[in-house]
Amino acid sequence: MTQTINVADQTMPAVGLGLWKIDPGAVAAAVYDAIKAGYRHLDSAADYGNEVQVGEGIARAIAEGLCSREELWVTSKLWNTYHRKEHVEAACRKSLDDLGLDYFDLYLVHFPIALSFVDFQDRYPPEWLFNPSAEMPSMQLDRVPLSETWGAMEQLVGAKLARQIGICNYSASLLHDLMNYANIKPAMLQIESHPYLTQEALIRTAQSYDIAVTAFSPLGALSYVALDMASEAETVLTQPIVLAAAQRTGATPAQVVLRWGLQRGTAVIPKTSNPQRLLENLSLSGFTLTDDEMAAISGLNQNRRFNDPGAFCEEAFNTFHSIYDLSLIHISEPTRRTPIS
Q1: What is the pLDDT of residues 286-314, one digit of tens each?
Q2: Starting at the edge strand that comes first in sequence, how are the strands of the sheet with 212-216 ordered?
Q3: d(Cα 49, Cα 227) in Å, to the nearest integer?
Q4: For residues 178 and 96, is the Cβ–Cβ distance under 8 A?
């Protein structure tokens, strides 16, 4: 049975496929395989650089009758360089064209960070650097209020380009502020959350506004080891409480951690292109964690944020730009030079 979460006046599958870091050469097959396995929730973004291929996987699945467009929940995100009101709709339409879709079920502001506009014809996706060929390439911030960006996001709903709109990587203070000027309330807050970064206060704040929450990187360090942003030793999957819960339930450690996320009331979007892992990550309804197991897994919290602009922007883009007040920055390697999304 598909588990769901309420998003405003709609129902979204609670387990989705995260498409960050899936190579463009592999993502079409991964999307097709995921839909064939039963996934109906796909989490994409312009910055991932693979939306054309994601669209190919969707089109193949629909053409073969595996699903209809209406049965899919497709999310994408507005990149930082398109925050000005005159660029928001064009950026949304660009992603829709790449994916071969007429509308998004959910369109999110990717980061509360405004960067100077880069034309689609110059570089797409533009990523973080304003001029990568400069002697000392760096980010170039743009003076765009978040309220301006949100106003343009609201117009996407009226234009029927997005059925729901929301935000990513917002803090509680930014969320409170947004609620003071939003004419259309955000339907979703997407944040990094896993047992080492439980974000309980932020999740409770969102839920107090009846805003749904999606946890990205729900398995923690696994998404970041290959980027030298985490070490193998930081995996939560070998924690004794996770292993004990896995043994008791007959689930895998990854399933236990994902189930913990679902039982907290969040959606989860684990990333994989491995067919076996696709099935494993989706099979979370046959067991339940006890209250004691939930509390013990939550007790692993270290406020360990892997995806932190306060760390990676300076290391990779020669620009210090912190957006979180509480940040425990662990640097496993002397330098990090790999862009992340």
Answers
A1: 999 999 999 999 999 999 999 999 999 99
A2: 17-18, 41-43, 73-78, 106-109, 165-168, 188-192, 212-216, 267-268
A3: 17
A4: no
**Residues whose CB falls within 8 Å of the CB of residue 120, separated by 6 or more in sequence, listed in order:** 90, 94
Q: Which of 178, 217, 176, 225 is nearest to 198 (CA)?
A: 217
Beta bridge partners of 214: 190, 267
Instruction: For residue 235, give both structure tokens.
Output: 């995996």
Tokens representing residue 109 in the block: 């502001």
C-alpha to C-alpha distance for 181 and 166, rounded to whole angstroms: 14
Query: Can you tell me the distance from the alpha carbon of 238 to that of 245, in angstroms, rounded to the nearest whole number?
Result: 11
Pairing assessment for the beta strands 4-7 and 10-13 based on DSSP bridges: antiparallel
pTM of the model: 0.94
Choice among 32, 48, 82, 107 that is catalytic:
48
Classify each residue of 225-240 as buried b or exposed e, where b means 16 or more C-beta atoms within 10 Å of its C-beta.
Answer: bebbbbeeebbbbebe
pLDDT on residue 58 = 98
Could you tell me the CA-to-CA distances from 53 to 56, 71, 98, 119, 339 in Å, in that order?
5, 20, 8, 21, 20
Query: Residue 266 class from Cβ within 10 Å (0-12 exposed, 13-18 middle, 19+ buried)?
Result: buried
Quick one: CA dihedral 121, 310, 20, 107, positive or negative?
negative
Tell me if residue 324 is catalytic: no
> Phi and psi (nearest 5°) for 162?
-140, 130
Tell me how crowded residue 11 is: count the other CB atoms within 10 A of its CB: 12
Q: Which residue has the tokens 């004990």?
A: 244
